[in-house]
Amino acid sequence: MTKPKNEVKLQMESRSVNEGYARVAVSAFAAVLDPTVEEINDIRTAVSEAVTNCIVHAYRNGVGKIYIRVRLFDGGKVEIQIRDRGCGIADVKKAREPLFTTLGGDRSGLGFSVMESFCDRVRVRSAVGKGTTVTLVKNIKGRDEPCEP
Amino acid sequence: MQVNIETEGSAAVCYLSGELDHHNAPAVREKIDEFSVGFCPQSMILDFGGVTFMDSSGIGLVMGRYKLLSAANCTLTVRNLSAHAYKVMRLAGLENIVTLKKCGEKGGKQHDKTEK
Ligand SMILES: Nc1ncnc2c1ncn2[C@@H]1O[C@H](COP(=O)(O)OP(=O)(O)OP(=O)(O)O)[C@@H](O)[C@H]1O
Ligand SMILES: [Mg+2]
User: Fold this and answer.
1) CATH of the domain at B26
2) Are A48 and B53 an interchain contact pair (Cβ–Cβ within 8 Å)?
3) Domain spanning A6-139: which CATH class is it, in words?
4) Do A52 and B55 touch (CB under 8 A)?
5) What is the pTM of this model?
6) Is the separation of the CB atoms in A26 and A47 below 8 Å?
7) Which of A12-16, A35-39, A56-60, A100-104 has the lowest mean pLDDT?
């Protein structure tokens, strides 16, 4: 395992108002890798999905803590870990299937699909009654060389 | 997040602006649904020109409005989507049920925000 070249940890309460803060904070930390606008949006969206899941699913009956760790590696790799100590997921494979949702209303069951298609890797570890850890890996290729001579 | 609704005859355009996430979606949904129930439009356009961020909550919003409006025989178009919002909606296959128009595309109003 290579050592990260930089790391930050954030902790926040599972209040929906913090969704915006979480995605902006993570993308700001990764900004030193000079990502494209598209790559920044990919990271923001994937983080937003994972954090929202902690709020609406993990701590559905109250407020708990969300722990985020972001690590930057040489070569442009960003690893974002989003962890909760909430209810956990009984069947992770099923939860990751497109359109699977345990909540009705306007939930579409596409959160994991968004994370998977916007990141290079998504790892989910979960234990019922203990909580869930989602790890997102994105390889930043960055901007094209500027056109100036 | 802001929603401004304009009408012309039986057509309605909802201009959305701000960040469309799980925190903001309920207020947007309530505003659109409350209007739809009272006004009964025959066509509805959701204009995403001012939307600066969108996650799967945007998919849920569009799918939910599609279900309600199509049951009331109202057509739904989503226009002025940023490259990013378009990518998210395509992932859900929304282009198969509602008309999706990217920013600058015909039928979508031009606006000067440049993508990429
Ligand atoms: N952190 C979590 N804790 C507990 N359950 C979770 C967590 N994250 C996801 N789940 C479970 O996995 C299911 C699928 O999650 P996913 O994000 O794909 O869809 P959704 O949240 O239901 O809908 P959407 O994200 O489209 O609004 C959820 O319905 C929920 O049952
Ligand atoms: Mg979700």
Assistant:
1) 3.30.750.24
2) yes
3) alpha beta
4) yes
5) 0.92
6) yes
7) A100-104
